[in-house]
Amino acid sequence: METLPDGLNFQIGVDIAEVDRIASSLEKFGDRFKERNFSAEEIVYCDAKRHPAMHYAGRWAAKEAFLKAVGVGIMRGIPMSAISIMPPPTRTRPVLTVSPEARVVLAERRVVAWDLNITHSRTIAVAAAVAFFSK
Length: 135
Hints:
Elements: E1 2-3, E2 9-18, H1 19-37, H2 40-47, H3 52-70, E3 83-86, E4 95-98, H4 100-108, E5 111-120, E6 124-133
């Protein structure tokens, strides 16, 4: 964990997701995979895209990067479905929101803020996230 001049600590998380792997899970498990790992808003957003798997992969990578930055896993802390990543009209970067239950876990870990970015091609998606912690 690194420290900023004002005393906040931060950690960075990075992840890469193969679009084909996500496409395979979407095909094999369908709605069960979507509902277990994505918010209803994310599902509507991704399914409306020309290449849905590419957008699901970007969100998968972003959620993994965020969880790495926060220092918790999907099995012992915050489930993927408790995280939602949407593109608001006023920003160029996506905004990550979490469920009230996930906010409890983040508060216990002293996470006070976060940011992330996603990039993808038709074959891979990469995301980086930073989490800021109070002392």
